[in-house]
Amino acid sequence: MTANHAADTPSVVLPAIPRIAGTVGHSARLAFLLGELRLPTIKHLWPDLAAPSDKEGWPAARFLAALAEHEVADRERRRIERHLLEARLPIGKTLDNFDFNAVPVISKAHITALASGNAWLDTGANLLLFGPPGVGKSHLSAAIGLALIEAGFRVLFTRTTDLVQRLQIARRELTLEATISKLDRYHLLILDLCAARSDVELEGVNSSRRRFEGRQLHITRLRNHSRFNQSTILIAAEFT
């Protein structure tokens, strides 16, 4: 390297670190800085990890990596808790406790693939589960929703009538676009108990679907499925 080239290389000047007397002062400042950086897990755990790190002579990279791994894991745990709360899924409905033997027409491998969400959510396909009462449609839809949340997606589980009423109220109050924008934050809307008991209710379901064109609707218990137009994609076979 020539002297001229070295002179042209920009240098990084780090800010001066203030001198703090005593371990307590450093600990207090570190706690403050971690709070400012919104790293609550590291703020809570670093003293516990610092002791074995000092005793065993960990390299700085190992100490920082251990703290970062705890922060990432705890952040993911908090994300799942937050998204589960907003999803309003029925409690205790998982793929592990769904009895696939009771509904042999449903492929466990197919459902497991759907639960990953990678293909059908990206393409905006819709998932329909329909059939007689008591065969596990709501259980299976909630279980898929739970798996998708754990995979990083946002899900909302709601009765179709509740969603239609919510949109009707928003339209009357001239807040429809804002309501649609809030719902559009979800990767998947699970509409339960879609029995379409009247033409008005069915039209409400169709209107909701049209407003979310390109987003995903997971609809269960749709007895009048033949009245949906052909842009709705049938993924799951009929329960028997």
Total of helices: 10
Q: Report the C-alpha radius of gyration, rounded.
A: 26 Å
Strand order across the largest sheet: 1-4-3-2
Unreliable stretches covering 5 or more consecutive residues: 195-216, 219-240
Shape: extended
Largest sheet: 4 strands, parallel
State the distance separating the first and last CA atoms: 77 Å
What proportion of the residues form beta strands (DSSP E)?
Answer: 5-15%
Order of helices and strands: HHHHHHEHEHHEHE
* Helix-strand makeup class: alpha/beta
Mean pLDDT: 75
Q: Helix amount, in percent? A: 40-55%
Number of DSSP strands? 4
Describe the structure in your own words.
A 4-stranded parallel sheet has the order 1-4-3-2. Helix 2 (23-36) runs antiparallel to helix 3 (40-56), helix 4 runs antiparallel to helix 7 (137-150) and helix 8 runs antiparallel to helix 9. It is of the alpha/beta class. The chain contains 10 helices and 4 strands; from the N terminus they run H-H-H-H-H-H-E-H-E-H-H-E-H-E. It is extended and about 65 Å long.
What layout of secondary structure does this protein have?
Elements: H1 3-8, H2 23-36, H3 40-56, H4 60-87, H5 108-116, H6 118-123, E1 127-129, H7 137-150, E2 155-159, H8 160-172, H9 176-183, E3 188-192, H10 199-211, E4 216-220
Parallel strand pairs: 1-4, 2-3, 3-4
Gist of the model:
With 240 residues, this protein is of the alpha/beta class. The chain has helices at 3-8, 23-36, 40-56, 60-87, 108-116, 118-123, 137-150, 160-172, 176-183, 199-211, and strands spanning 127-129, 155-159, 188-192, 216-220.
